[in-house]
Amino acid sequence: MHSPQLFIQGLAVPGGLAFDADEQLFVAETLEGRIQRISPQGKPLFFASTGGKPLGIAFDDSNDLFVAEKGHRHLLLISPDATVEVYAHQCKRKRFTGPQDLCLGPTGDLIFTDVGDHHSPSTGSIYGVNIDAETSLLATGLANPTGLVLSQDASNLYVIEADHNRVLSLSFKEDGTLAPPQVFIQFTDGGPPRALVFDDDGRLYITRGGKGLTIADPDGQPLTQISIPGNEPTAMVFGGADFDELYIAETSTGAIYRMQTESPGQRPFAGPRSI
């Protein structure tokens, strides 16, 4: 496992990372309310404005980009020509409180975390949005859910519960909702976890405030701790020709770091949505 190396700096609070179908890296600059495309040489190129506080981002198999726009409390769809539209903003007439992170499932459904009411503890939720943009509540009663990732067989969803400094595992029931959460990893030190990705060997990578990067085995036992410059590592994404380069955003330094991993990353689901 190699040490993280600086890839790009000078970003205004990088809060989300994703690669498109052409293997171009995109970053959500939360403070500036915009999405940037990053050249292979590490140069930012403006792509689209969200006007608020974009966080998690993900591409589908049509190369449409979905954005968790916390500032405006909705999900955005940004087409390849940079046209921006609101994709979803409520569930059964209840407005989202602050979408945090999102991912796509194997059927093309979006799954995202919603922070909940800051004045009421444990009101965070997980929602699903199907390809017809119909929204359903999958789970609620969570304390500030943030990063999330699906298992390789899509049978389990792993979600950070930031206010309790832990990672939860939730299995999908036959009706598509989520079973009650089980604690997968409970941290007792450091700041809250921020983002999650798996590698192909089932190891879970977790960015943590003040602790850098923690790698846990498939049973949730921490294996390795890797230091990252700064105290606020956030989003992660795998890329590279062999999918064994991990890109890590860090907000206090306004940078993205890159490191070589022992195993390739688990490729994120992207659909199908283009059928």
Based on DSSP secondary structure assignment, what is the total number of beta strands? Answer: 26
Share of β-strand residues: over 45%
* Largest β-sheet summary: 4 strands, antiparallel
Shape designation:
globular
Helix segment count?
Answer: 0
Low-confidence stretches: none
Sheet with most strands: strand arrangement: 1-26-25-24
Cα end-to-end separation: 39 Å
| Sequence of secondary-structure elements | EEEEEEEEEEEEEEEEEEEEEEEEEE
Specify the helix fraction band: under 10%
Q: Report the radius of gyration as a whole number of Å.
A: 17 Å
Average residue-wise pLDDT: 95
Structural summary, described in words:
With 275 residues, this protein is mainly beta. Helices cover 0% and strands 51% of the residues. The chain has strands spanning 5-8, 14-19, 25-29, 34-38, 44-49, 54-59, 65-69, 74-78, 84-88, 90-91, 94-95, 99-104, 110-114, 124-129, 135-142, 145-150, 156-161, 166-171, 182-186, 193-198, 204-208, 212-216, 222-226, 233-239, 245-250, 255-260. The strands form 7 sheets. It has a 4-stranded antiparallel sheet, with no helix packed on it. The protein has a 4-stranded antiparallel sheet with strand order 2-3-4-5, with no helix packed on it. It is globular, with a radius of gyration of 17 Å. The N and C termini lie far apart (39 Å). The mean pLDDT is 95.
